[in-house]
Amino acid sequence: MTLAKSILEHSIPLLDCGEKIRFLDPAFGTGVFYSALLNATGSDSILSAQGFEVDPCYGEAAKELWKETLLNLKILDFTKLSPPKRQSDCFNLIICNPPYVRHHHIESEEKINLRYLSSKACESKISGLAGLYCHFLCLSHPWMQRGGVAAWLIPSEFMDVNYGKAIKQYLLQKVTLIQIHRFDYEDTKFDDALVSSAVVWIRNSLPPPNHKVLFTFGESMHSPNMSRLVNLPCLKDEPKWTRFPSLGIREKAENHCLSDLFEIKRGIATGDNKFFILTKEKTEHYSLPDEFLRPILPSPRYILANEIQADQEGLPILEHQLFLLDCRIPEEVIRAKYPSLWKYLKSGKGTTSERYLCRTRKTWYFQEKRLPAPIICTYLGRKKGGNERAFRFILNSSKAVAPNVYLLLYPRDTLKYYLSRDPNQIRRIWEILNALEPTSILEEGRVYGGGLHKIEPKELGNVNATRIVNAIPSYAKISKETQHSLFE
Ligand SMILES: C[S@@+](CC[C@H](N)C(=O)[O-])C[C@H]1O[C@@H](n2cnc3c(N)ncnc32)[C@H](O)[C@@H]1O
Q1: Do 405 and 380 meet the contact criterion of CB atoms below 8 Å apart?
Q2: Among 39, 104, 315, 441, which residue's CB has the most CB atoms within a 10 Å radius?
């Protein structure tokens, strides 16, 4: 059964029995949903059918294809249209797979306009980071008949990320969120392999008392592998909706989280790794002064073990030894005192110096200040199955700093204090981190199509750290307030 057919077969029964259909697809393409509608109901049940398509190639082809039917297809940009003024001109069945254009590919003026119109249409403040699919969803709201139903085939990203908050607020407050079906990410529904998809069903009416939303997951929406009903108030409090249906409602215990113990930062973004990160041979070839070279870790694929040991000088014992050119003195001083470094920097002028990060710095070659972190974490990875982990915590005993393919965990003052008394505790903590239930970390991050997981510093900070706190008895005994007062 095709996806469009399944979506239509799932949506039509949500309408009142015998209700004539007023169909709208605002991103019509060639009309797979319209085709599925005709197959599912026959034209007798359809009162009207409206489509919008911005691309004349698709639009003309679709017009030709459906010319014998009652379809009214307009080759127009849906986002620029005014919704119908009268209820009787609105639609009771909107089915759409909107264009998925990321926010940074939307022209800034257009984005301002879209944000204004979408926020007004759904009465929720839409973020500048929202993709075009979010605007389609919001802008369609005034096109829906009261009590009408819509099904949106969209990326599931909104369920977990910050820009999704306003969309979720709309789904919870302005309409009745009926169901969200998420497809198995192994089975991505979009050509773009980085997108995992969901179908969201809504009804244009306020949610009835005690309403529960059905979350389903699996290849088929008719017989999902998993399903769970979740109360609206729980959804309001839960920032990560992709935990449903496989996981339940989060316990609200007074737990510790990783950000209580660690300050979590992203590794160094050099602006041009090829220029600023060099092998030992290259630093010698260019005679770069040692005082401006800091050891830096290579990417995780070169770090096979989860522990980095150090030699007597603190250099990481690794096959791939790399150095960051980290010089924070002005050009005039470099020119006068360090001719070889001056020559090297000159070779990056006009190329590296013009790259985005470099040209927006005070001085193009100044690097971010970061100290070596005792624990680092890979933040992008695939979980290939079983108990395999998408993210690895690596114990770093060297004085190497880390690039931005890692998150860096710096102990906060209280933890630092305990570690100064018993340096072995850091190993203990690292062991616990790597033994945490993988889902307890994954559920804080986000997942893209093809099973690519990603976790941001703030999200890693939300991971429950109660096991760590309980494993350090002297730490656990002291309440949070007392911990702070130790250093005041
Ligand atoms: C993901 S495709 C959906 C395809 C469609 N379901 C079909 O049957 O072919 C999105 C469609 O929206 C169209 N589109 C993009 N921006 C649009 C806009 N602003 N207004 C109307 N259509 C738009 C694209 O040209 C594309 O055909």
Answers
A1: yes
A2: 441
Residues of the chain with CATH 3.90.220: 253-269+371-488
Q: In what order do the strands lie in the sheet with 307-308?
A: 262-266, 406-411, 375-378, 393-396, 307-308
Pocket perturbation via mutation, ligand 1, pick of 8, 55, 94 by most ligand atoms within 8 A of CB: 55
CATH 3.40.50.150 intervals, the chain: 3-243
CB 134 within 8 A of CB 167: yes
Q: Identify the band that residue 387 occupies on the pLDDT scale cut at 50, 70 and 90.
A: low
Residue range 414-431, pLDDT digits in tens: 888 888 888 888 999 999
| Beta carbons of 254 and 310 less than 8 angstroms apart | no
Quick one: average pLDDT of 372-385?
84
**CA of residue 177 to ligand 1 center, whole Å:** 24
Ligand 1 binding pocket, CB closer than 6 Å: 27, 29-33, 52-55, 58, 77-79, 97, 99
Backbone angles phi, psi at 145, to 5 degrees: -70, 150
Q: Strand (E) positions, 306-396?
A: 307-308, 322-325, 375-378, 380-382, 393-396
> Which letter does DSSP use for residue 352 in this model?
G
End-to-end CA distance of the chain: 65
**Amino acid in position 210:** N
User: What separation in Å is there between the alpha carbon of 165 and the centre of ligand 1?
Assistant: 25
Which CATH number describes the domain made up of 3-243? 3.40.50.150
CA–CA distance, 72 with 251 (Å, rounded to integer): 51
For domain 253-269+371-488, give the CATH number. Answer: 3.90.220
Cβ–Cβ contacts within 10 Å for residue 441, how many?
23
28/2 Cα distance (integer angstroms) = 17
